[in-house]
């Protein structure tokens, strides 16, 4: 007798991943970790949202198997800066404010037969995961929602540090060291002041990384000002005057988000900070330029401002091997967690040891992370508030170790580019 055919439909196991917020040198390594682990765990289709959840609402997505064809593509992707899938800064409204948006998103997820939703991003992105998970619970949807940490700002709660931070810190420290060499080369009989502006709205982790330039053959920056410490412009002037008494070239690092006692950003003194994004964040730029002009007028010497801007988050040629490997690890861990039934969680990096440095991936409730900022501890800043302590250095130094060199073609780095 002919063998009876099994007509039971095989349930599809699909997964979708998106990227959100400011890009980094490591965010695509997390995407590679999601893709590779999802393939290994038997997911049928791995979709990529184009421009995050905002693009998803316009039904903009791609089957990642049409973009990543080999292990070599995965390796190139890990070395590609910025957001391969495109990013967004979209704030989901509260559920009661606009339930139609949530209905639309879940209608799309149901149509694509999505089992797990992975979002790679920072604080605002974890807010998105929290809200989608809460809605799914209330409405009885079965999708799993997992967050993958990403931010050069290193300001996510509960995780020891965030992917993207180590590579940005490595670039910042290297550039600071090179700027110091440049300044010293032109300091003979010409006192100069260089002010470096580093990203950091409320958290000064990146600005503190400039102290890594202090090595056997380099004194590092002379002054460092973080947003966690109220900025006193008169005391700042006194500090710089004192430095000029013993050296011809003074190099100062400031966070873009340093504030005066009255709550104003220093950059606002020059009329900056008027643009506000969807999350209510003012655009911060011009802090170093204002302070350079201020010191030039007060001290009558040559000043220059150097704004690292997007260079610090896109310098994949200066990526840290520790950072890229950990970014890949947390991407894969998110898929594993979803596959094993977790939802409403964010993957974190737990530091196991410092010497030798070791870390592992953990899983924490996203409600404890979203909308909470991790700031530099006050005890990691000196009493005067103008430099960081050895505890800060000991924390950050393991994260910049090792290189992850790009594949070079005709002398330039090769990147994987989305084929729309």
Please, could you describe this protein's structure?
There is one protein chain. This protein is of the alpha/beta class. It folds into 2 domains: about 15-165 and about 315-370 and about 400-415, Rossmann fold (3-Layer(aba) Sandwich), CATH 3.40.50; about 165-315, Rossmann fold. Helix content is about 35%, strand content about 20%. The protein contains 12 helices and 15 strands. The chain has helices spanning about 25-40, 50-55, 70-80, 100-110, 125-140, 165-185, 205-210, 235-245, 285-300, 310-315, 320-340, 390-395, and strands at about 15-20, 45-50, 60-65, 115-120, 145-150, 190-200, 215, 220, 225, 250-255, 300-305, 345-355, 355-365, 410, 410-415. It has a 7-stranded mixed beta sheet with strand order 3-2-1-4-5-12-13, sandwiched between helices. It has a 4-stranded parallel beta sheet with strand order 9-10-6-11, sandwiched between helices. The longest helix is centred in the middle third of the chain and has 21 residues, at about 165-185. The radius of gyration is 23 Å and the shape is elongated.
Task: Report how far the terminal alpha carbons are from each other.
Answer: 50 Å
Shape: elongated
CATH topology of the largest domain: Rossmann fold
The helix/strand class is alpha/beta
Strand content: 15-25%
Helicity level: 25-40%
Tally of structural domains: 2
H/E element order: EHEHEHHEHEHEHEEEHEHEHHEEHEE
Query: How big is the Rg?
Result: 23 Å
Number of helices: 12
Number of strand elements: 15
Can you give the mean pLDDT? 93
Highest CATH level, the class of the largest domain: Alpha Beta
């Amino acid at each position: 007798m002919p063998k009876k055919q099994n007509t039971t439909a095989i349930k599809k196991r699909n997964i979708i991943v998106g990227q959100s917020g400011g890009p980094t040198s490591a965010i695509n390594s997390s995407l590679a970790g999601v893709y590779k682990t999802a393939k290994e765990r038997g997911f049928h289709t791995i979709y990529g949202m184009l421009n995050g959840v905002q693009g998803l609402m316009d039904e903009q997505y791609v089957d990642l198997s049409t973009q990543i064809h080999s292990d070599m593509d995965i390796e190139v992707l890990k070395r590609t800066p910025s957001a391969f899938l495109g990013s967004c800064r979209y704030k989901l409204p509260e559920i009661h404010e606009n339930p139609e948006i949530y209905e639309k998103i879940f209608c799309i997820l149901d149509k694509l037969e999505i089992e797990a939703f992975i979002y790679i991003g920072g604080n605002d992105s974890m807010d998105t995961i929290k809200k989608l998970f809460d809605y799914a619970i209330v409405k009885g949807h079965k999708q799993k929602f997992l967050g993958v940490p990403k931010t050069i700002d290193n300001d996510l709660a509960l995780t020891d540090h965030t992917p993207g931070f180590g590579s940005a810190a490595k670039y910042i420290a290297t550039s600071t060291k090179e700027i110091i060499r440049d300044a010293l080369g032109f300091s003979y009989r010409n006192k100069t002041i260089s002010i470096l502006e580093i990203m950091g709205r409320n958290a000064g982790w990146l600005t503190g990384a400039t102290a890594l330039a202090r090595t056997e053959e380099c004194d590092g920056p002379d002054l460092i000002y973080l947003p966690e410490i109220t900025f006193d412009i008169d005391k700042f002037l006194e500090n710089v005057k004192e430095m000029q008494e013993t050296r011809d070239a003074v190099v100062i690092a400031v966070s873009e988000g340093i504030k005066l006692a009255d709550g104003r950003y220093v950059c606002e003194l020059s009329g900056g900070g008027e643009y506000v994004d969807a999350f209510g964040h003012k655009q911060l730029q011009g802090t170093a330029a204002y302070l350079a002009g201020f010191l030039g007028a007060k001290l009558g010497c040559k000043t220059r401002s150097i704004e690292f801007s997007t260079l610090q988050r896109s310098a994949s040629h200066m990526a840290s091997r520790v950072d890229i490997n950990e970014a890949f690890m947390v991407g894969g861990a998110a898929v594993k967690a979803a596959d094993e039934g977790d939802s409403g969680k964010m993957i974190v990096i737990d530091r196991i040891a410092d010497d030798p440095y070791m870390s592992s991936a953990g899983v924490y409730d996203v409600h404890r992370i979203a909308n909470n900022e991790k700031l530099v501890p006050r005890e990691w800043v000196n009493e005067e508030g103008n430099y960081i302590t050895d505890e800060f250095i000991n924390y950050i130094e393991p994260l910049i170790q090792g290189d992850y060199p790009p594949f070079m073609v005709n002398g330039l780095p090769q990147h994987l580019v989305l084929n729309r």
